[in-house]
Amino acid sequence: MVRGMAERKELPDVEDVVGAGVGLLARGALALVRLLPPPAIAGGARLLFSKSWRQFEAACADPRAAQEARLAAILARNAGTAFGKEHGFDGIRGYDGYRKVPVRGWTEFAPWVRRMLGGERDVLCAEDVFFYARSSGTTGEPKSIPVTAGYLEEFRHPRRVWMRQVAQAMPGLMRGHVLTVHSPSIEGRSQGGVPYGSITVAMGGAREDPTGFDPVPRRVFKLPDFQARYYTALRFALQVPVSIMAAINPSTLVLLCQVLRDRAEELARDLEAGTLWDGARVSDEERALLRPRLRRSPRTARALREAMQQRGLVRPVDVWPMLAGALCWKGGSAPFYLEQLAPLLPGLPVMDYGYAASEGCFTVPMDAGAGQGVAAAAGHVMELIPWQPYEAGSREAVPLWEARQGERYVVVITGSHGLYRYDMQDVVEVTGFRGKAPVLAFHHKTGNMVSVTGEKVAESHVVEAVTRACGQVGVRTRGFAVAPELVNPPRFVLAVEPEAALDPAAAERLVTAADGALQDANLEYRAKRESLRLGPMVLRQLPAGAFERHRARRVAAGAPDAHVKPPHLSRQLSVLDELGRET
């Protein structure tokens, strides 16, 4: 692993300035870089990432050549592994020959990975595994994605190009610090002694504290109390200038803004006195460890109080005047939260992270526009299964270079982590092309769909409908979830946590608007409603703090804090019952 990283010609870890909190340049040069005007920073990023950019552009011009070269290298390197021998890697010639390897999901790969976790070598990959990326958002046994030097290079290539584009959209990003939410550094070790945790930790070289530039001490994100964690993170971030806010899920940014609003006075007092609020559930031992890094900032305390007096809330722009923008996911269910975030970051760009997961990085957003990105043909090998045939049971994939405009596909990937023709169960849509490389927009997971009477309601339909309905009736919520209720006739239940309790009239307006918007978003749902096979949607108000408690329960169960996703659509009504629990 060390040898592979040392051979890179570009500065190490530059692409992780936000995702893993690693700086663009060495510490000694950072102060000088912050003095540069924004156009110089944008130009410097173009120069710094010029090699990766040329490789990216070449892959866009000829994605077939890039993909087949990557596939040949992966097969040759891993022909001697147990998996490679069983599947005849040494005899495969080109993509057509590779198609004899069956498409598999995690269930089929799990036994191979368990052997590796136990310390067995040369099972899926010939390279040493120095880390396992634990995947979140699943139930039961967590996924443990092997991380090798080769896999990191495949992952990092599109991230370098992405960082180049971030610097073009937000050239002021180097003016201050990056406020980002981390998962715990190393969560544990496998039976074979290999550490595991979040993929962002692996991106930082699997070190306990890979950064010296974060305004928030890494240990803050290990605090057991959920609300204390976010309060304390803001307490530290408010004592320095912040130029970028970043979180994988935009819901996390919204949550930070809510804490900033709800605890403005407590934060102001702490900043005046250089203390940490007694009401924050932080142990005496942790307080003693954090206290040396606490600083006074009377100026920021005044800004907090002035904002509350002037508009009744504090926006990030009120306390961080150098804020250049935000980074988060923008696809799938993200628009619901992005709409809430927009008035808190007036006029500032929000750029997508791109379609990425513990299993790899697959697209490169070009700007701060919609949640879509160019397929990273020079990174992992990607195949596409047409979505409708997939739902009918087909696993016949086409190569990336045969993608068609407007079609939806399920993504299948191959990489140096040892996952071969791995079914991501993610549905993406081809929205355009850059050269010959498709531009992909993430829609939803294949399993995240409800079809009681053939309506095929997907999470993207629900998010679109509820977001539109809230805007129509002027209701602001902190979260929502939808699930079917199997009564006669069946119907969908919309559970919302409103910022202020809804009276019966407002509740009726909201659920009526949501039902109508869902009919507009999904014609099959409209047909089933009009034919009375589905009854009208009903509303359930959730108690205050429902989604925060859900997040806290998920984190307590072992899910990485930064990766917890709100449950917007479920097949089980019990999910709404769980959200309604007070404790």
Average residue pLDDT: 87
Number of strands: 22
Strand residue percentage: 15-25%
Terminal residue distance: 45 Å
Side-by-side strand order of the widest sheet: 11-12-17-16-15-13-14
What structural class do helix, strand and pairing data support?
A: alpha+beta
Shape category: globular
Rg calculated over all Cα atoms: 24 Å
Tally of separate helices: 23
Low-confidence stretches: 1-26, 136-140
Q: Largest sheet at a glance?
A: 7 strands, antiparallel
What level of helicity do the residues show? 25-40%
Question: How would you describe this protein?
Answer:
The protein is built from 23 helices and 22 strands. The chain is α+β, with helices and mostly antiparallel strands and about 575 residues long. Among the domains are: about 180 residues, no CATH class; about 70 residues, no CATH class; about 130 residues, GMP Synthetase, Chain A, domain 3 (2-Layer Sandwich). The protein has a seven-stranded antiparallel sheet. It has a four-stranded mixed sheet with strand order 2-1-5-4. The longest helix is centred in the first third of the chain and has 21 residues. The radius of gyration is 24 Å and the shape is globular. The N terminus is likely disordered.
